[in-house]
Amino acid sequence: MTLTLEEIAKLAGVSRSTVSRVINNQPNVKEDVRDHVWQVVREQNYHPNNAARALVRRRTQIIGLVIPQAIKAIFSDPYFPVLIQGISAACVECHYQLMLSLITSQMSDAYRRIIRGGHLDGVIVASAFTDDDVFINRLVSDGFPFVLIGRQPQRPDITSVDADNVHGAAMAVQHLARQGYTRIATITGPLTMTAGIDRRDGFLSGLRTAGMTLQDGFMVEGDFTEQGGYEAMQRLLSLDVRPQAVFAASDMIAVGAMKAVRAAGLRVPEDVALVGFDDIPLASAVEPPLTTIRQPIEQLGHTAASILLDNLARSQDGDGNIPPQRIVLPTELVLRESCGFGMRYKNSR
Amino acid sequence: MTLTLEEIAKLAGVSRSTVSRVINNQPNVKEDVRDHVWQVVREQNYHPNNAARALVRRRTQIIGLVIPQAIKAIFSDPYFPVLIQGISAACVECHYQLMLSLITSQMSDAYRRIIRGGHLDGVIVASAFTDDDVFINRLVSDGFPFVLIGRQPQRPDITSVDADNVHGAAMAVQHLARQGYTRIATITGPLTMTAGIDRRDGFLSGLRTAGMTLQDGFMVEGDFTEQGGYEAMQRLLSLDVRPQAVFAASDMIAVGAMKAVRAAGLRVPEDVALVGFDDIPLASAVEPPLTTIRQPIEQLGHTAASILLDNLARSQDGDGNIPPQRIVLPTELVLRESCGFGMRYKNSR
DNA sequence: GCAAGGTGTGGGAGCGCTCCCAAAAAGAGT
DNA sequence: ACTCTTTTTGGGAGCGCTCCCACACCTTGC
């Protein structure tokens, strides 16, 4: 059923080599021969066998997206679909395919299965946790091409693409400060995740920029879930001196926090202003709509894939040493109502 | 760097064939030889080259997930991540890998790229639109192994796995009817999508079961988005005789509808009761929490992949004719507050 | 003791392609 | 016309594996 190069060659009345040259767009084939071969290829609906090609070329034209720890929490927001869209778009542009590997099982098993065996020319690692470094160190020591989405605190020497969590968080705080709030608290994400750490650091730096200091009890650790946000906010509300504004390290946290505020008989933003992070669809759907920091997720994916694919092409051209690069894409403040912006109320007290 | 079978053989002091037999768990190798070979394989961290293997075996151990039309609308809810988790789990169990193909470009190009060339042993097609039949018919005529997630109205003869949209919708209506509502309307999804059609059909059948008929203007077409739901609800509210309860064909529609109700100065569920479909996280986060129909998304993916993988294994064993099967997984009513259940109010008028 | 049947083991062939080199064809220059 | 170069074409080798067949080496049973 499925034809080989040789058979196409016979049908076209030329040699294997010539057909190979044609389908690979190599030079030194007469124009009319080239056209004729293409015609035969088209009408036979021929496509070269990828396995055979991969065997000799040592290239599969497949990159992998590795997601260590496919936790439900992450999967309950649309981060990954959007990321994948970005990656996929870059792959299509470069005629690459995308393989998906959710790592749940034994790390070393997974590593062998995914990386060795040569299915993949390179991988994009969506790193969320600081302890993904096991996997990453292995990649580095094997010299396997990869790009990180996110950041590994221990490894500033590897190519990565990340959203500017630090600056995003700082923007959020400064926006709150500019509106006159002086008692600003934060509910952080888990500090085992780089996003959690960076957003906290950004919060603290924003506070400093605004000339403020962190007040007692004004930083509580959540876990990027609604439930966590709810409980964290309860603790904040039980303080003797309540915060006027809270920066939540994720929208899910913010939604939980909002419910806690309401459950305590208080209002958002009149009693407690709220800013989230991520700009998930839910952020604009809640009442009041949530002011938040948007990260360019699709662009994150697209950029990571482009860099990886570019590096792959360069290393194929013998371009030996590719210096690592760290790219940080800007985040953006999305103004809605939960931060109290535009309220007459804003500068009182 | 990367070792071959032959080199492992030399290191172990046996032949290529013996190593091959060992790593493929074939019989007729002495126990001590087998152990020794395994040991060498382990310590050299050897993994057979997949391309070479695929070339001779005509099997890549990769299946594809094909998503025709990667529209943002679909990607803004966590349907796909969960689906992928289910598929991925089944793949891991069977030592298969998962390739992801979002089809955005020219259909025939995409088909060639994805299906021919032999990267894939089979595919799972996530079919949402009725006009995906172009792709599917091609698959059928090429005899390429695949399983559909969803349903193709024109092709009842192919293996598919779907959620019971019809019964789910019927349950929703019956629940509403049981609470005493007599004026029940629906906002459908787009009727170019099978889920849209099936949920509408289920709505109508549920209405019949409850002994009711569709009242004038009580069915308006939405498009599975919040905006669409908002506008559709406005039309419903502008009717001379307003519905008491509305079945929205998706949670996003329901959320939009909820906002429209509120914008009109009315309350959910007191003035208009609401039931959604999907049970996305947003459903439990809105005020009031949304009663909805949950579909077993992860199980959908797992089942589809298992069937495909099973068929693949059977066809390898020469088990020629595999009859198509259509699997419909049950949906479930998730009671929350938007439907007015538990209100004293419920049986009035 | 020897044929008849296992059980292990090694090596050839070949999967479908690309790469390389040599041969043929076509120009270019005298 | 003839050589020298350049373009075009064809076929061999080999990528790393599996499959098959042949050959060893053991058992048995008479």
Would you kindly provide a written description of the structure presented here, covering whatever features stand out?
The structure is a homodimer of 349-residue chains. In chain A, the strands form three sheets. Chain A has a six-stranded parallel β-sheet with strand order 2-1-3-4-5-11, sandwiched between helices. A four-stranded parallel β-sheet of chain A has the order 7-6-8-9, with helices on both faces. In chain A, strand 8, helix 12 and strand 9 form a beta-alpha-beta unit. Chain A has helices at residues 5-12, 16-23, 31-44, 50-57, 72-75, 79-93, 107-115, 133-142, 165-178, 194-209, 226-237, 251-263, 281-285, 297-316, and strands spanning 62-68, 97-103, 122-126, 146-149, 160-163, 184-188, 219-221, 245-248, 273-275, 292-294, 326-329, 332-334. Chain A is elongated, with a radius of gyration of 26 Å. In chain A, helix 6 (79-93) packs parallel to helix 14 (297-316). The longest helix of chain A is centred in the last third of the chain and has 20 residues, at 297-316. The model of chain A is unreliable at 344-349 (pLDDT under 50). With 349 residues, chain A is of the alpha/beta class. Chain A starts with a helix and ends in a 15-residue tail after the last strand. At the A-B interface, helix 4, helix 6, strand 2 and helix 13 of A face helix 4, helix 6, strand 2 and helix 13 of B. Strand 2 of chain A pairs antiparallel with strand 2 of chain B, so a sheet runs across the interface.
